């Protein structure tokens, strides 16, 4: 969710009314790829509905069509696509020694030109004219490839790339008649489409790559079969397609006396702690909470099969306030919307501390160079200030600003998304901002109409930042306009789901390329959305 420029003195009301499911549309419009369950039904999670090209009242939440389960069918070979030769998968996931900042320029707060750049052809590598050293590669043509309208990284708090960067997964949706959609795997070196994965997670973002095995991806199966809800954690070998059950939650949920008529799913942010070890989950089948899918919240250790109940908070949680695991695997954190704070739990489910950071906006969990757990995200009039990039240290309770009002950066721009997906580079995060498609003003504000000489600072930019040193490097213009929140429409699929590779040298981001000519931006909620790779100077193809 992104409350944008609205002052948030009454954010508790927003928490009660709006959804914070920043990640997306559940099984919206998805033809499930689970070939082992043909004829079963995917379970759709409740989302705000956008109809007739009008704006959703919830900025940043994904549109949906219905909460009614839909028949699952398996995706097949995409339309008009001939996969290129596949690069063999590495057998190791070694740490990186790459310096992300190598070759980057620190432009400070200076306005950068926003130059015209025609939409590249598929697999065309172009120089970003405004950020020398950065390459941009358009890796999909969603209409020609899949006869669909959208191909995107699922969400910034999901790790799209596997641990050795030889594979990544994009989400394809908006299929036209005869089109294909689902979870599409690509070659991480050539960017060639490989195949759709036969998975059916409870939301489009809830798939998880191993940090040690490049072939291993885990998800929680989300189906109904013969009137029974399937709630099994599954592991798939993405190369062979072989699937293995990791854990069946049904006996555990029944032992608690909880309903088994709803799915088991993760909270937000969408990530596990450690290497697929610690999880923050919830079991459905209970009434909605604060207008969202209601879940009985629990922590789970996949190595031991142990459930942890959180002390000091209600059992029933909205899906957006379900506690999430710390990336270190040392506990959980809970977004306390009512008090605009974040509560930290230890591995026994006991409260350790409360941090003055409002986890209602787009954010991600992270780890700094010291190994301390963090939350990084945007604050609009939060308890510790306002900024596009603020950092809450969940290990100490300190809150700091990297980009924000206290640093002279003006009020936070709209629709900021942040990812800590470069997990081999502790302390580094990636930020994408829609802001204004018309660029920025000299006083660190945003233009609200076309200008003759468009320039940017924060608006329309992708940046990488080190939360330990405060270094910020602006690296590219994403040129996506459909998610501009001041427009009469609000296109969820065109937001900037920046997703860095584990080494941080490449960044996936979607764009409708409405800013091919920044002097005359095109804001079209029906434009097709493709995925691009931003290659930093530190990226050296093997």
TrEMBL record:
Keywords: Signal. This is Uncharacterized protein. SUPFAM superfamilies: Tricorn protease N-terminal domain (SSF69304). Residues 29-45, 61-90 have a biased composition (Low complexity). Residues 1-23 form the signal peptide. The keyword Signal applies. Residues 46-57 have a biased composition (Polar residues). Residues 29-90 are annotated as: Disordered.
